[in-house]
Amino acid sequence: xxxxxxxLADGRLVHGALGxxxxxxxxxRTAWLGRVASLPPVAWVLELxxxxxxxxxxxxxxxxxxxxxLPGNAAAPGARGSANLPWTxxxxxxxxxxxxxxxxxxxxxxxxxxxxRDQAVRSFAQHHLATEIDHLRCIExxxxxxxxxxxxxAWRLAGWLTGALPALFGPRVFYATVAAVETFVDRHYAEQxxxxxxxxxxxxxxxxxxxxxxxxxxxxACRDDEVRHRDEARAAGPAxxxxxxxxxxxxxxxxxxxxxxxxxx
Length: 265
Description:
Blueprint: E1 5-7, E2 13-15, H1 17-26, H2 31-38, H3 40-57, H4 89-115, H5 119-142, H6 152-168, H7 171-203, H8 207-235, H9 242-264
């Protein structure tokens, strides 16, 4: 995964920019491109560009040291702690998005506490902040530190603004924001749990299956808490006028975009 290598029909091995040129030359539609890319001046420029690309490639394609959560897959020699968890690449991405989401959720309530003087809002935020901190610790037990999102500072800022800005406009707007966020989070956790249920059918009653079952139980507990947060926010009487509906729709769309990005970075 660090550098492209191509073996030619005569057994020679080429790599980097010349590897791309060899592949392009072998395909009818790009044969002309392969011939151009093989020319020394062009090949030198392409090689320099490729090496530059490899330096930043890991930002959106992080390597993972974990293996598929299926029976018979062994952990890497010498692996310890969370590195032994048999998570698939997709499940790591899910957990990365969960971790980023819980980091953002903590900041939502911290943002509200920073600007709101409404006692009901502050009590609501303090209670739910403690729950979100517990959720974050729970996710961190399952997710290796090296697999956490590289954009955590951005998620902290985005979360803080998502809590502080609506709190400035009053309790009802803040509660509407929380309800929108938790509605999305409920769906997000539900989709993950469904995927884990399918994996459990394949894993069977071995160690991998036991670890998946423990993860599922933790995610379900987190989901149940988030549903209660959503219902409490709705019961508090969120604002429902047109501009608030537009704001909460943008919050939902932003949450979906953040999850998509956090899965990759």
